[in-house]
Design goal:
Length: about 180
Protein backbone atom coordinates (compact mmCIF):
# COMPACT_ATOMS: atom_id res chain seq x y z
CA UNK A 1 0.00 0.00 0.00
CA UNK A 2 1.21 3.47 -0.92
CA UNK A 3 2.03 5.97 1.83
CA UNK A 4 -0.89 8.45 1.88
CA UNK A 5 1.51 11.28 2.79
CA UNK A 6 4.12 10.27 0.21
CA UNK A 7 3.55 13.49 -1.75
CA UNK A 8 5.42 15.35 0.99
CA UNK A 9 8.72 13.89 -0.22
CA UNK A 10 8.11 15.06 -3.78
CA UNK A 11 10.40 17.94 -4.72
CA UNK A 12 7.56 19.58 -6.65
CA UNK A 13 5.41 19.60 -3.52
CA UNK A 14 8.23 20.95 -1.33
CA UNK A 15 9.09 23.69 -3.83
CA UNK A 16 5.39 24.52 -4.18
CA UNK A 17 5.12 25.00 -0.42
CA UNK A 18 8.22 27.22 -0.47
CA UNK A 19 6.76 29.34 -3.27
CA UNK A 20 3.48 29.64 -1.36
CA UNK A 21 5.21 30.81 1.84
CA UNK A 22 7.41 33.31 -0.03
CA UNK A 23 4.39 34.62 -1.96
CA UNK A 24 2.47 35.25 1.26
CA UNK A 25 5.51 37.03 2.69
CA UNK A 26 5.98 39.11 -0.49
CA UNK A 27 2.28 40.08 -0.57
CA UNK A 28 2.31 41.15 3.06
CA UNK A 29 5.53 43.14 2.74
CA UNK A 30 5.19 44.88 -0.63
CA UNK A 31 1.51 45.11 -1.59
CA UNK A 32 -1.10 47.44 -0.10
CA UNK A 33 -3.65 45.41 1.90
CA UNK A 34 -6.62 47.42 0.64
CA UNK A 35 -5.68 48.79 -2.79
CA UNK A 36 -4.10 45.47 -3.83
CA UNK A 37 -6.49 43.13 -2.03
CA UNK A 38 -7.65 41.35 -5.22
CA UNK A 39 -4.07 40.93 -6.43
CA UNK A 40 -2.95 39.65 -3.03
CA UNK A 41 -5.81 37.16 -3.00
CA UNK A 42 -5.02 35.99 -6.51
CA UNK A 43 -1.28 35.64 -5.86
CA UNK A 44 -1.85 33.74 -2.63
CA UNK A 45 -4.59 31.53 -4.10
CA UNK A 46 -2.50 30.65 -7.17
CA UNK A 47 0.56 29.90 -5.05
CA UNK A 48 -1.51 27.82 -2.62
CA UNK A 49 -2.99 25.79 -5.47
CA UNK A 50 0.39 24.55 -6.64
CA UNK A 51 1.19 22.23 -3.70
CA UNK A 52 -2.46 21.59 -2.82
CA UNK A 53 -3.24 20.15 -6.24
CA UNK A 54 -0.13 17.96 -6.06
CA UNK A 55 -1.30 16.56 -2.72
CA UNK A 56 -4.91 16.14 -3.85
CA UNK A 57 -3.86 14.40 -7.06
CA UNK A 58 -1.55 12.11 -5.14
CA UNK A 59 -4.49 11.01 -3.03
CA UNK A 60 -6.66 10.16 -6.04
CA UNK A 61 -7.51 6.62 -7.05
CA UNK A 62 -5.59 6.37 -10.29
CA UNK A 63 -2.69 7.71 -12.29
CA UNK A 64 -4.90 9.51 -14.81
CA UNK A 65 -6.56 11.55 -12.04
CA UNK A 66 -3.16 12.29 -10.52
CA UNK A 67 -1.98 13.59 -13.90
CA UNK A 68 -5.05 15.83 -14.15
CA UNK A 69 -4.27 17.40 -10.77
CA UNK A 70 -0.63 17.92 -11.75
CA UNK A 71 -2.07 19.81 -14.73
CA UNK A 72 -4.15 21.99 -12.40
CA UNK A 73 -1.02 22.66 -10.35
CA UNK A 74 0.89 23.57 -13.51
CA UNK A 75 -1.87 25.95 -14.60
CA UNK A 76 -1.87 27.72 -11.23
CA UNK A 77 1.90 28.05 -11.42
CA UNK A 78 1.72 29.64 -14.88
CA UNK A 79 -0.90 32.09 -13.59
CA UNK A 80 1.36 32.98 -10.68
CA UNK A 81 4.33 33.48 -12.99
CA UNK A 82 2.32 35.82 -15.22
CA UNK A 83 1.34 37.89 -12.18
CA UNK A 84 4.98 38.15 -11.11
CA UNK A 85 6.08 39.14 -14.62
CA UNK A 86 3.39 41.85 -14.68
CA UNK A 87 4.37 43.11 -11.22
CA UNK A 88 8.03 43.23 -12.21
CA UNK A 89 7.18 45.18 -15.37
CA UNK A 90 4.94 47.63 -13.46
CA UNK A 91 7.52 48.28 -10.75
CA UNK A 92 10.39 48.69 -13.21
CA UNK A 93 8.21 50.93 -15.39
CA UNK A 94 7.23 52.97 -12.34
CA UNK A 95 3.50 52.25 -12.77
CA UNK A 96 3.54 50.65 -9.32
CA UNK A 97 5.30 51.88 -6.21
CA UNK A 98 6.17 49.80 -3.18
CA UNK A 99 7.86 50.82 0.05
CA UNK A 100 11.16 49.53 -1.43
CA UNK A 101 11.07 48.97 -5.18
CA UNK A 102 14.63 47.62 -5.39
CA UNK A 103 14.00 45.00 -2.73
CA UNK A 104 10.62 44.14 -4.27
CA UNK A 105 12.30 43.55 -7.66
CA UNK A 106 14.92 41.29 -6.02
CA UNK A 107 12.17 39.30 -4.28
CA UNK A 108 10.16 39.00 -7.50
CA UNK A 109 13.27 37.86 -9.36
CA UNK A 110 13.86 35.14 -6.76
CA UNK A 111 10.21 34.06 -6.95
CA UNK A 112 10.28 33.96 -10.75
CA UNK A 113 13.39 31.76 -10.67
CA UNK A 114 11.77 29.43 -8.14
CA UNK A 115 8.60 29.27 -10.22
CA UNK A 116 10.55 28.56 -13.42
CA UNK A 117 12.36 25.71 -11.67
CA UNK A 118 9.07 24.38 -10.34
CA UNK A 119 7.60 24.63 -13.84
CA UNK A 120 10.42 22.48 -15.25
CA UNK A 121 10.08 19.91 -12.48
CA UNK A 122 6.28 19.73 -12.82
CA UNK A 123 6.55 19.39 -16.59
CA UNK A 124 8.98 16.50 -16.17
CA UNK A 125 6.75 14.88 -13.55
CA UNK A 126 3.73 15.25 -15.85
CA UNK A 127 5.60 13.73 -18.79
CA UNK A 128 6.50 10.73 -16.63
CA UNK A 129 2.88 10.35 -15.53
CA UNK A 130 1.70 10.67 -19.16
CA UNK A 131 3.94 7.75 -20.13
CA UNK A 132 2.55 5.68 -17.27
CA UNK A 133 -1.03 6.60 -18.19
CA UNK A 134 -0.30 5.61 -21.79
CA UNK A 135 1.26 2.32 -20.73
CA UNK A 136 -1.76 1.60 -18.54
CA UNK A 137 -4.04 2.22 -21.51
CA UNK A 138 -5.87 5.02 -19.71
CA UNK A 139 -5.78 7.36 -22.70
CA UNK A 140 -6.87 6.57 -26.22
CA UNK A 141 -4.66 6.77 -29.28
CA UNK A 142 -6.72 9.77 -30.43
CA UNK A 143 -6.01 11.61 -27.15
CA UNK A 144 -2.30 10.77 -27.44
CA UNK A 145 -2.18 12.04 -31.04
CA UNK A 146 -4.03 15.24 -30.10
CA UNK A 147 -1.53 15.89 -27.31
CA UNK A 148 1.42 15.36 -29.64
CA UNK A 149 -0.11 17.72 -32.20
CA UNK A 150 -0.83 20.36 -29.53
CA UNK A 151 2.77 20.11 -28.27
CA UNK A 152 4.07 20.46 -31.83
CA UNK A 153 1.89 23.55 -32.45
CA UNK A 154 3.09 25.12 -29.19
CA UNK A 155 6.74 24.44 -30.10
CA UNK A 156 6.23 25.87 -33.60
CA UNK A 157 4.65 29.00 -32.10
CA UNK A 158 7.64 29.44 -29.75
CA UNK A 159 10.02 29.15 -32.72
CA UNK A 160 7.94 31.66 -34.71
CA UNK A 161 8.07 34.15 -31.82
CA UNK A 162 11.83 33.68 -31.47
CA UNK A 163 12.40 34.09 -35.23
CA UNK A 164 10.28 37.24 -35.27
CA UNK A 165 12.37 38.71 -32.43
CA UNK A 166 15.57 37.95 -34.39
CA UNK A 167 14.12 39.61 -37.50
CA UNK A 168 12.98 42.63 -35.47
CA UNK A 169 16.44 42.94 -33.87
CA UNK A 170 18.12 42.84 -37.28
CA UNK A 171 15.73 45.53 -38.59
CA UNK A 172 16.49 47.74 -35.59
CA UNK A 173 20.22 47.31 -36.08
CA UNK A 174 19.91 48.09 -39.79
CA UNK A 175 17.80 51.20 -39.11
CA UNK A 176 20.14 52.38 -36.34
CA UNK A 177 23.20 51.97 -38.54
CA UNK A 178 21.69 53.21 -41.78
Amino acid sequence: MRNPLGYKVLRTYQRGEEIYELTKKFSAEFLHPIADSRLIGHLNDSARSVPRNISEGYGRNNTKQYLEFLGFSFGSLVELLEDYFALEKDIKGRQRKTKDNEKAIREISTLIKLCMGEKSMLKSQMETMEKIVGEQGLISDKQRINKILADRRRNEKEVDIWLQSVIDDEKRKKNAGG
